[in-house]
TrEMBL record:
Keyword check for Amino-acid biosynthesis: no
Record domain SH3b: where: 48-111
Keyword Nucleus: no
Organism: Rhizobium lusitanum
Pfam families, sorted: SH3_4 (PF06347)
Protein known as: SH3-like domain-containing protein
Length: 184
């Protein structure tokens, strides 16, 4: 007997909104498509790159200092953030809705996480094997939080944060891995 699980995003992503910036419903532009890769002045790591929120109550600020106003408070550890610039211990980040701001590096982790693409209009299929004909393990709603284990450039091996579901999902259905990016 086979069955499919539908995993909802509502339990997986929680934000406190402190700004008037909204989500337009389309994926934010990736700087990878428009900018050559560079390295961060402080870390020497590639810019842009993905990281994730490490702590509960992580503040995104308007500028790179605690003297700047808080723009957002993220209360869900593991949310993916794209680091787009560095300044001292501060990282300019972009979230999956396109909102940008600054976070202290202590609030971020190098652990790779992703969310099912928020711009999708249909659920994404989590499959047993990395192929379109692989058995469906679960249907994932947009914004479901995932741990990324590896990506082949077209498929990523993932597990659903807080659930036992694991398998493969098309890389194009994620925000947290660049198109064509390969990593183990």
């Amino acid at each position: 007997m086979t069955y499919q699980r539908k995993i909802r995003a509502g339990l997986c992503v929680t934000l406190v909104f402190l700004s008037s910036i909204g989500f337009a419903g389309t994926p934010p532009a990736s700087p990878v498509a428009t900018t050559a890769w560079k390295t961060g002045r402080q870390t020497g790591l590639p810019i842009p790159r993905f990281a994730s929120v490490k702590s509960f109550k992580a503040r995104m600020r308007v500028g790179p200092s605690t003297n700047y106003a808080t723009k957002w408070i993220y209360i869900k550890p593991g949310l993916p953030m794209e680091i787009i610039n560095e300044y001292g211990h501060w990282r300019q980040v972009r979230d999956d809705t396109g909102v940008t701001g600054w976070m202290h590096s202590a609030l971020l982790s190098g652990a790779r996480m992703a969310v099912v693409a928020p711009w999708l209009t249909k659920n994404a299929m989590l499959r047993m094997d990395p192929e379109a004909t692989g058995a469906v393990v679960a249907e994932l709603q947009p914004r479901v939080l995932l741990s990324l284990h590896s990506c082949s450039g077209s498929w990523c091996r993932v597990s659903v944060k807080g659930h036992s579901a694991r398998g493969y999902i098309r890389q194009s259905k994620l925000w947290g891995a660049y198109p064509g990016e390969i990593f183990q």
